[in-house]
Design a protein that fits this description.
Helix content is 17%, strand content 46%. It is of the alpha+beta class. The strands form four sheets. Strands 11-10-14-13-12 form a five-stranded mixed β-sheet, with no helix packed on it. The protein has a four-stranded antiparallel β-sheet with strand order 2-5-1-6. Strand 12 and strand 13 form a beta hairpin. The longest helix has 11 residues.
């Protein structure tokens, strides 16, 4: 079992990430909310992003899981949380380094809050391409042009590279290019 290191003086909610089998995220989130007391688990959520899809001749906004295979937990007491998580069926592990469970660092939490706000939904961004340079004019990607690795204009998706879970991860979010010069 993983070793827990937690500062006992500071009691404020930390963000943890658990790895689950891709496709079971909603099931695990529901189990956590149902089985774990709200005194222990402050919040359990799955961040989503909006994507435009064209079908039946029209554009529709769909929501997709931002980090497939991960469920986010906000809790104060890691030890109690780990004990309660034993009731959850299908959980693979809580992300950490080595045998130690580590919460997300404040920069990672800030990034998730900036992009997804309290709704944990990264809405569509709009941008323009000028001289092969992307400029985001509205939406959560504003100011994050440097993180964009490539853009799929056909699917209206931006592929970003960000630091998350203690490593570099690729993340897809909705981006509509409204003008190219």
């Amino acid at each position: 079992m993983a070793k827990h290191t937690q500062n006992t003086e500071a009691r404020y909610p930390m963000w943890y990430v658990m790895q689950v089998r891709t496709g079971t995220e909603e099931n695990i989130r529901c189990q956590c909310q149902r089985l774990i007391n709200s005194d222990i688990l402050e919040r359990c959520f799955i961040p989503y992003y909006q994507q435009k899809k064209r079908f039946q001749g029209e554009w529709h906004i769909q929501e997709r899981i931002l980090f497939p295979g991960y469920v986010f937990l906000i809790a104060e007491n890691l030890e109690q949380l780990v004990n309660e998580l034993k009731k959850v069926i299908g959980l693979t592990k809580i992300i950490g380094t080595g045998n130690e469970i580590v919460p997300l660092i404040s920069e990672e939490v800030d990034l998730l809050m900036k992009m997804g706000t309290d709704k944990q939904l990264v809405e569509m961004s709009c941008g323009i391409i000028e001289n092969d340079r992307v400029q985001i004019v509205s939406g959560p990607l504003t100011g994050m042009e440097g993180s964009i690795r490539r853009i799929d204009r056909h699917k209206r998706i931006a592929h970003l590279e960000i630091e998350m879970f203690g490593r570099t991860v690729e993340m897809k979010v909705g981006l509509e290019i409204i003008k190219k010069e």
